[in-house]
Design a protein that fits this description.
- By secondary structure, the protein is α/β, with parallel strands linked by helices.
- 39% of the residues lie in helices and 25% in strands.
- It has a 7-stranded mixed sheet, with helices on both faces.
- Strand 8 and strand 9 form a beta hairpin.
- The longest helix is centred in the last third of the chain and has 37 residues.
- The radius of gyration is 23 Å and the shape is elongated.
């Protein structure tokens, strides 16, 4: 079935390499050599010249490449890991997280397997795969409705126990019963957490 679908151009999703590493270039070659994977490598965004069979879209930085991808509607990416700069890699991954439909990671080594990300072995390379179902608006609405419903239901069920805990704290320690602590949330945003 995949071989039949591979002959239909619309079946192959365009994918762009962000950055370059040897495993990423091997992965791009593997994807190009095997049309049954369902991907078509469109281009490589790179700060450094790369020897490859695809057009290299020159950009000043990979952050700029992410912005250009967003403008062009590219939703599938292969993000090449640079082991010498893990923080930059993680920041770029978090930038893609909000709008990319899927991100495949061309890991420089096998250490990223500890993140429990799905892996895929190609002919001469391997890719790690992260798919974000929350880029679909229906899934975001459904998740929010489920979160609110479950929160309200659990709040009602837990209310008698929380009142009892508040009474015990008031008797044993005095006030205040509750205190606030700042925590990091989605996208690195800080929010106040109220605790006993």
């Amino acid at each position: 079935v995949k071989r039949l679908l591979a002959k239909w151009p619309e079946w192959q999703r365009p994918v762009v390499l962000l950055g370059v590493n040897p495993n990423g270039l091997r992965a791009a070659a593997d994807l190009a050599a095997d049309p049954t994977t369902g991907y078509r490598v469109e281009a490589i965004f790179s700060e450094t010249p790369a020897v490859a069979a695809w057009p290299v879209w020159p950009v000043a930085s990979l952050d700029e490449a992410i912005e250009v991808s967003h403008e062009r509607g590219v939703r599938s990416f292969i993000l090449c890991e640079d082991p010498s700069n893990r923080q930059t890699f993680l920041r770029r991954f978090s930038l893609l997280e909000d709008f990319a439909k899927e991100v495949r990671i061309a890991a420089a080594d096998q250490s990223l397997h500890t993140w429990r990300i799905e892996s895929e072995v190609l002919k001469s390379s391997f890719l790690l795969h992260y798919e974000n179902p929350l880029t679909n608006p229906f899934n975001r609405i459904l998740k929010r409705a489920l979160d609110l419903s479950a929160g309200v239901l659990l709040g009602v069920v837990a209310a008698p126990g929380m009142v009892a805990i508040a009474a015990v704290i008031r008797v044993s320690s005095g006030s205040p019963i509750l205190f606030r602590q700042m925590r990091l949330g989605r996208g690195g945003r800080r929010f106040p957490l109220v605790k006993f």
